[in-house]
Amino acid sequence: MSEHIGLIEQRKAKRLLLAQQKKPPTQLLERPWISIKDDGPTQFSVKIMTWNLLAQCLVRRELFPTSDCLKAHQREHLIHEEIERQDADILCLQEVDRLEKLCPMLEKAGYSHQYASGPNKKHGCLIAFKSSLFSLSEHKIVFYDDEEISPDGTPMQKIGQSFVTRNIGLIVGLQRLDNPDLGITVATTHLFWHPRYTYERARQVGILKREVTRFGQSDSLRQRWPSVLAGDFNFTPPDPAYSLLTRTTLLPEHEEYLRPSYVVHRSVDSTVPLSPSQPAAADADEGGGAEAQDPDRVITNARMASPSDGLLDSVGLVKLYSESPEARSAYDAALSRFLQLEPGQEVPIYGSTPERNIDPAHPGFHEPAYTSYTHYWKSVLDYIFVLESDKVDARFTGVLAPLPGNALEPGLPQKAICGSDHLPLVTEVRFNSL
């Protein structure tokens, strides 16, 4: 009997060894951790990561001609390794598919999770959290296409949208296991991809910020918890939505940037005629990095909006955003503070890239130089925000260092750099009740 058991164990060990040998070896690029000195009082700290994984169902070779890892078996172990390496307490993931592969890995790494997707979408958003630290108290899915932004008018006017996008936001309340009075509200989202629909993205993130605030206020415990928004927002720091999020204001140049996006697409108004040689389905074809293929893509199958459509003007947008607290970007705040404390250090930030014309005093100047870097598209689209609060103080004490463009050539995904076309963002934030 003992010989039989020994033989079984030998065979088991051999299978494990063969499995390890079959696992592709990786040499993922190491990213240093930037620490920011902080001596303030702390009730608890949390490490948060956000990452657009590039859904496999959206990958097309023509979008990533220089990538050396587009097949699932080439990318997935890179993504899993990065998640394990960063070892964040909370993960906010977008473009998540192939759950049968990702979820067992997350469970093995000690995470529980909540997943949601838009109607008839093959990928979605996922929030994972260390089950040794948090329990899920409640969750909510925000369907942007159904959310009202005005109290009056017809159902269409109350919603005030320019495009039926099927995008969502996912909100969770996470309660600390070591102290049930403490916790955190976390939201993740992937906003509409089309580069010309500036208004629709501003509408969507305004709704998300409002709903996160309502979610927090709906429970006596959560009222005292901090709130985090993290994800792929598909806009850059100079965008009107970034200004609305962080300052609740719109400058004249923001209003000018918004103006061409005040349209109503055929998905909202079926009477809009089809544009020649442009099927309406193509407008919703996000594709993996679709904005990368054609950042100058024009609006088609749409008409100019009229007041009766209910789209919010600049005054209305400011009012929508004023219903909830302003947001502070983890990377913008942390890197600004770090460079004040260490003025001789070189960090690849958004404002230091020569072709970008942004005032150093403008919010967003200290965002990473890039969060998405492909052959066609190189930009900043991903963020981690904390909502300002008079009940909780939030201090960013570290971030995963940004990478310069020359380290990302010839364009993501790359086996030796990153398994997605987006880079993960990671921050450590300390909270203390006021």
Automatic annotation (TrEMBL):
UniProt organism field: Candolleomyces eurysporus
Transmembrane domains' residue ranges: none
Keyword Hydrolase in record: yes
The family this protein is said to belong to: Belongs to the CCR4/nocturin family.
InterPro entries: CCR4/nocturin_mRNA_transcr (IPR050410), Endo/exonu/phosph_ase_sf (IPR036691), Endo/exonuclease/phosphatase (IPR005135)
GO molecular function (one): 3'-5'-RNA exonuclease activity
GO biological process per UniProt: nucleobase-containing compound metabolic process
Keywords, in A-Z order: Hydrolase
Region span, Disordered: 273-294
PANTHER family (UniProt xref): CARBON CATABOLITE REPRESSOR PROTEIN 4, NOCTURNIN
Domain Endonuclease/exonuclease/phosphatase: 49-422
Key word Hydrolase present: yes
Name of the protein this chain belongs to: Endonuclease/exonuclease/phosphatase domain-containing protein
